[in-house]
Amino acid sequence: xxxxxxxxxxxxxxxxxxxxxxxxxxxxxxxxxxxxxxxxxxxxxxxxxxxxxxxxxxxxxxxxxxxxxxxxxxxxxxxxxxxxxxxxxxxxxxxxxxxxxxxxxxxxxxxxxxxxxxxxxxxxxxxxxxxxxxxxxxxxxxxxxxxxxxxxxxxxxxxxxxxxxxxxxxxxxxxxxxxxxxxxxxxxxxxxxxxxxxxxxxxxxxxxxxxxxxxxxxxxxxxxxxxxxxxxxxxxxxxxxxxxxxxxxxxxxxxxxxxxxxxxxxxxxxxxxxxxxxxxxxxxxxxxxxxxxxxxxxxxxxxxxxxxxxxxxxxxxxxxxxxxxxxxxxxxxxxxxxxxxxxxxxxxxxxxxxxxxxxxxxxxxxxxxxxxxxxxxxxxxxxxxxxxxxxxxxxxxxxxxxxxxxxxxxxxxxxxxxxxxxxxxxxxxxxxxxxxxxxxxxxxxxxxxxxxxxxxxxxxxxxxxxxxxxxxxxxxxxxxxxxxxxxxxxxxxxxxxxxxxxxxxxxxxxxxxxxxxxxxxxxxxxxxxxxxxxxxxxxxxxxxxxxxxxxxxxxxxxxxxxxxxxxxxxxxx
Amino acid sequence: xxxxxxxxxxxxxxxxxxxxxxxxxxxxxxxxxxxxxxxxxxxxxxxxxxxxxxxxxxxxxxxxxxxxxxxxxxxxxxxxxxxxxxxxxxxxxxxxxxxxxxxxxxxxxxxxxxxxxxxxxxxxxxxxxxxxxxxxxxxxxxxxxxxxxxxxxxxxxxxxxxxxxxxxxxxxxxxxxxxxxxxxxxxxxxxx
Lengths: 573, 192
What we know:
The structure holds 2 protein chains of 2 kinds. Chain A is an all-alpha fold. Chain A contains 16 helices and no strands. Residues 1-21 of chain A have low confidence and may be disordered. Chain B is built from 7 helices and no strands. The longest helix of chain B is centred in the C-terminal third of the chain and has 32 residues, at 128-159. The mean pLDDT of chain B is 94. At the A-B interface, α7, α8 and α9 of A face α1, α2 and α6 of B.
């Protein structure tokens, strides 16, 4: 009997490690791996490191704004040229090297194969290539700080002629490296995106129909399609910008027959759908967490999908609301005002679905749930303030003020920071096999949320009072150097310091989890989707045996069932 | 290093092979890149009627000749696909090399054409028209080179009767390179 069990165990063990029967070196296992889980970790870690760089930049320029011209601990004196480079790099890094790699690439890599019940991505080597190109793009961007003239300082939107003429931006190499880095990042996400779409379409477990796919997988796939459809013109536009910078063509130079507004169209035709590219995965992550912790079926799964498709389609018809003051035809401004206000309808509908899911549920307020709930609340603030900016009449007054900054940080911080931590705390037990510390998690949550609101609530007010967003030192502007405004700027910077310090709890929690986190078991949150039916962490090949799907993704609290959840892989009784 | 395909590559929930599915998505992304570039060109061109005088200096015979070469090379790509379907990898590889020959001829023509134009002063910085001319045709030329490289890799495998399904995929990609040229030729050479 004992012998049989032992040999059976050995069989299972051998099956689980059939692929790595030879000893793999550290390099092959962690840096050259084609395993989607390892690549997910690579994206996650790189994304978080880049977020630290972006956060450091934010620290530098917020300190300068609160105490202009003074020596900043850890940065030194910040020149106006450096200030511009910091602002530009902060924006670029946080969107392209933090939000996208974490929300789409890391969660996509971790979750898509596990949630649709297969062993890896459809193209594991393209997946690895995608990460490698992404890593090179990050190196190019950081490298631009160390070349002659320093990093590009023409804002993350890179409007020409400032971005096209070295005589204006004073960074002849940095500006081109910035474009190249962004273009490489696009290539990485095109490779990754096609992989995600193909995998979710073609590699689903037997029995998993379209309407059995978990919401977060849908969201990542739709986001990848949006990215692919919107980024193409900007790839061409980036090539044109590099030619303008380095060969002296005049695509964007009116004196040579070009048109600077052309760049704005190409940029925002991508730039606005990009908001939804990062929003949708964040919404998906929070949908999973809210459903699981409300112990209730997601309210209106199909309705949610329709709103997502509607959002995706409408997002291609709103881009010019970024250009109301760029001299576009006022009749066009009316059209884009209307489309912009229309897109708030499906988004509001999504929020209602989340609230309806919560209504009447048996809510568990664990750390991931706190993050997910705060996402809904904080994002709502960001969405509502967007209406002021979407309407061309009021936008003319708010344009390029701190009101805009506060608005989009109330959308992007919930997306990139809050939803990232929600997903991280929810799935890290699955990916590492260890539970995180709840107390440290809650401390981290509350300090981050307090810090975040303290940063950006004052900026709504300074913006309404007229603070222009691209000013290095307000002392040079008598109207803007009042004590009341300066107090609000200092409050905002203090908020940032709290938010940065709060991340210490997160690092502490990671170390605690690594050293003495208790074993998570297969299904610590009693979830229904497929990833919870395998071991934590899942072995090579993910499932042994491969699962078959018999039911929808959110069968919580089904009347008559013994447990309050029915996993997707559980056959009907 | 040998590489074992995971189960994920072999599944077909959507009803068609994973490689072909991914290829169609790749084509979609390419169409949008060129779509953005050509839409920008057309918008600018409509705003600059004087570009018509610049366009008169393009050599329509080079453009037409290259169109014929590229379209003919697509024929051999289709013949390669046909051979691959019957399982004749060697024949498929031969047709693919023929297609690559067409690609090389196209690039050589382009080089001669561009050298002539540049030596007559029609450089990329001469005017907006020439900027778009070199950018669009250059980006297309890069796709010709990339497609030919992919075909060479597939042909080497196909000659050993390996991965024959890929003959079809490079063929589809090659048709895209063709179709893009069909848009570039009238826009850059004929519209005057």
